Amino acid sequence: MKRQTVLFALASLLIGVMISLHFSIEQDTPERDTRDLWEIRTALLEEQERQQTLQEELNRLKSIEADYQGNHIFNQIHTLRDQISQLQDQAGLTELSDEGIELTLTANFTEADQDEGFPQLTAELLNRLINELNVYGAKHLAVGNERIVQHTAIRDVTGQVYVNRRPISDLPVTISILTDNPDRLKNYMEVGQSVRDLQLHNIKLEMDVRDNITLVPYTDNIVVDYAKISDYNEEGES
User: InterPro entries from the entry (predicted)?
Assistant: First the structure.
């Protein structure tokens, strides 16, 4: 009898434990499933936020690239315009203002012989003077209202000096020069050969340093001979 009681108690205990485990499993299963679903949702939200952040960063980089390309093209255009402007200045096609010196050629009647007549400026004297000015640092010149450029022709035509195919006035004649160092140019010219050459022809040379001198642009058409435009492909090969 005692043995049966013990067996019955053990069986009851075992059944109780099994029932307890069964209820515990049924109660834990929904909680575990709910937690896993929440974790998945959280992970999805985090992934979406990360992708959104990456997309925003990609858009920002694309915007920077577009700005860079736009600025690069703008810089190229700006550089090209600067180069064109510099070439126009060098060719004498633009009006220029800067410091320089102003030369005035006048007739020196005190040294002139009555038999020699009125002192005359010749194309040879003017060419020598301009060449010497260029050697001593002149950057841009104008004789009266005629801008001196690389292909300017200075000639004597029927006893009168022509510059750029137009006659210049008789003495006095004004020559305007732009230079980086007006005082140095003036000092060089005061002891230069041109002063003595002009004196031999009874022409006096006066020089004045100016803070601001304006040169008129060259107005004639520039004719370029023996030049042609070559076609280039994208790699720059002709």
Answer: DUF881
Q: What is the mean pLDDT of residues 83-106?
A: 90
Q: Is residue 227 part of a domain?
A: no
| Distance from C-alpha of 211 to C-alpha of 101, rounded to nearest angstrom | 8
Of the candidates 96, 107, 106, the residue with the CA atom closest to the CA atom of residue 142: 96
Q: Is 216 helix (H, G, I), strand (E, B) or coil?
A: coil
- C-alpha 100/C-alpha 212 separation (Å) is 7
User: Quick one: pLDDT at residue 236?
Assistant: 43
The answer on pLDDT for 232 being more than 50 is no
- Cross-strand pairs, 141: 148, 177
Report helix, strand or coil for 192: coil
- 199 and 157 fall within a common domain: yes
- Do residues 148 and 59 both lie within one domain? no
Gap between the Cα atoms of 63 and 51, Å rounded: 18
Q: Look at residues 224, 211, 96 and name the one whose alpha carbon lies nearest to residue 148.
A: 96
Residue 237: inside a domain: no
Range of the domain at 208: 97-215
- In eight-state DSSP terms, residue 116 is G
State the pairing for strand pair 173-179/138-143. Answer: antiparallel
Say if residue 204 is in the same domain as residue 101. Answer: yes
- Contact (CB, 8 A) for 213 and 179: no
Task: Give the whole-angstrom CA distance, residue 168 versus residue 157.
Answer: 11
